[in-house]
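Deliverable D5.2: sample structural annotation.
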Amino acid sequence: MGLDLLTYILFATVMAGTPLIIAGLGELVTEKAGVLNLGCEGMMSMGAVAAFAVAYGTHNYFLAILAGLVAGLVMSLLFAVAALTLMANQVACGLALSIFGVGLAAFIGKPLESMSLTAGTPVAIPLLCRIPVLGPALFQQQSLVYFSWVLLAAVAWFLYRSKPGLVLRAVGEAPVSAHAIGYRVVRIRYLAVLFGGAMAGVAGAFMVVFYTPLWVEGMIAGRGWISIALVVFSTWRPLRVLLGAYLFGGCMVAQMFVQASGIHLNVPAQFLSALPYLATVLVLVLISHNRSNIRLNSPASLGQPFLPDV
């Protein structure tokens, strides 16, 4: 394998994993507050179609990313009102949000399907981009790739090194106790849900602005569900979200490379396309065997409604 090919594979792996990192970290913060939002697929879809429409109309990619963020924020607000204020079942609300978001995005994006964008220009980091193999793969990337790394550091610091992060984790572990000492549990959960929705919207914007600069119905292709699975895969630890995202991205790039290279494996192309998802399922199955580790790291009140005493 030539160095240029290795650089390309690493570059593509990072690109494929970036939307999963952004959406996964948003979902992690949401679940750390004790809220299970399964609507990531719908929020990413709405973020993608909103970002594409703005990017095509304005040719301003910053505004496009901002539009994706706002779209994800609005979708997560619908979930928050239903699940936190009206106290509907969180699983049902999340599933409904996912189905609604995917369908609405397909409806809104129908007139946009014949259009395309110019791919965003990569941002090279001086000196670091000259490192052989790793330089072009890691330090000559799109801006949101660097954002995902900064987001990882920020989320890790917030959760484990700041007082607001400690409060958020306390709300996820024992909301009754947190409420008893004066913390506004519902408000904190609202903020966590909105943050998760905003990050899902940004992840969807990345898909249409940088990863595949066009809009096609169903282009999120299960990445929202994979992002949710990554939170379990990571046992609610930020760094493991990144590792899991790049594992999925590497599997996806590998199957695309095999299909594009013309290697004959006597295996149906549909099976190769399913391999990244199969690998994720297998990893989750292996992790689920260690139930004590799951119970130790998962928020104790995850998915449970909270009704404050008024």
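Annotation notes: Residues 96 and 274 are 25 Å apart (CA to CA). DSSP finds 13 helices and two strands in the chain.
The annotation will be released with the project's public dataset once the embargo ends.
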